[in-house]
Amino acid sequence: MEVAKKLQGVLEAQNYEPPKELTHCGGKRPCSAGKLWKRAEEMRKADMHDDAGADLIRALLKTGIEVDFIDRCKRSLQWAFGSIQRQREREKREAIEEAKQEARKEEERAAMEEALERIKEYEADFSKFGVMLQESIANTNTDGDGTKENKSAAVGADGTTTIEKETEKEVEDLILNVKKSFVEAGPQGGNWSETLQLTKKVRPSDKSTDILLIEARCHEMLGDHKSALSAAGRLIQKAASYTPWINDSPRMIAVTLGANAAMQLGLSENAISFYQTVLKFDPEQQKTRKQYRGLKKVVKLMGKADEQIEKGYNKAASVFVEDCLSAMRGLDVDSPLFRSRIQLKQCAILSGMGKFEEALNHCDSAVEQRVAGNTNDSVSDKSLKEAYLVRAEALLADMDYDEAVQDYWAADRLTPEDAEHLQEKRELNQKLQQTKHEQELWNGGLKDMRFNENTGYPDGRPPQRDHAKILELPIDLDERSKDIKCAWLKKQFKALVRKYHPDKYKGNKKRGTRKFKEVKEAKEIISKQWEC
């Protein structure tokens, strides 16, 4: 009641003149106590508890009012101040959450800047490597030709012995041609396809760390991350030792390249193994330690999210997944496959919590990334199918049956028609048929023996929709009075129409237009049912 006393003190101050729109009810005369109480009730239903409390105090300040009315006003005032306190606590929690989000964004910005610097260093290291190759080529040309023969005997099928002669000069010339092709466009490298074809002519036993790095770089620039990972792994295996791992050395460049390739393939454990190899031989390697900790943090957060999901704690799991996505922004490489895997997990979690807008934003992003990856063969049909199925489930929960059917069709087309996938194909087809049935009920218009022109339904079966769910009304609202139901209807309609208005909605425009139309139709139907 301290707040009430302070408000009353302000209202009773001699120099205080309240605005007429607060004290007058449309005419020239001030509002009566009854009209103030009625206006306070309307404001209370609209969650305008501050204004409701002020009107109740104004009503209590009126003279000549009955005792019963005073008691009723006091009860309403007590309820209003309780609501105000809860509102303040909610606003405080929101402010704390907003501050946390801002702090997270600052951390993300700092991490992204550091990652960007490391990417620049990575490209600069390749330029240094190119300069080193150019110097090596120049020195080879200066040294002149020195030819040594390497002879080996081989027994033919007829028992005769032949002498195979291969000069080291031929091997050296081939390696020299690989280097020349790589730096022909400049020290940063180039001629990826041509250079790669030359590296294939070099025998595995003759491939030095330089040639293996050139091979890995060519695969990376051509988008073949699987081959890049393999070449980088062979280089590390060949060059691993307990000597210091210098930042711009070929084997250190290969570590970053191999880890990046593994992440592009969604193989976080393989990426971690690259960093662990360096730290095993050189524990003081600071750059690798920072990269290792960043990736390990992401994997650890994903593990915690999975633990919470198993326990059924979706809200806690959602926080860990969001932290995981935030931590990913500090990695050297943004892996579409790995990121989409996390986003699909978040989509499923948020959908289960009823947060369909956020869930579908994550699903849309994941599908887009996997479609792009599938186009250049870096994402398999199986991974793309997984994305479509997760989004289809989220769309079903959001009652978007048209789009859900499309996603199930897409998943069905990506499922092979063979004996191994027969059961999966059958289950998917069954799910598709169920969704199509839900779609027909939702959209209506289907004509049958019961719904046709002769039975009074010229437009066919009327749509069967959960209008209360569309308007996000409380499930126990039917038990409340007509005034409360109509107040909730008005409040939800106003909020949702503003949210999904075509000029203001920032999400998927097609989805926003559908929601906007469904909300308006639902409000019209429920208004007639409740006589609002």
Automatic annotation (TrEMBL):
Domain of life assignment: Eukaryota
SMART domains, alphabetized: DnaJ (SM00271), TPR (SM00028)
Pfam families: DnaJ
TPR repeat ranges per the UniProt record: 385-418
Keyword check for Signal: no
Species, as recorded: Chaetoceros debilis
Domain J as annotated: residue spans: 466-531
Alphabetically ordered keywords of this record: Coiled coil, Repeat, TPR repeat
PANTHER family per the UniProt record, alphabetical: DNAJ HOMOLOG SUBFAMILY C MEMBER 7 (PTHR45188:SF2), DNAJ PROTEIN P58IPK HOMOLOG (PTHR45188)
Coiled-coil positions: 86-125
Entry-linked InterPro entries: DnaJ_domain, J_dom_sf, TPR-like_helical_dom_sf, TPR_rpt
Name of the protein described by the UniProt record: J domain-containing protein
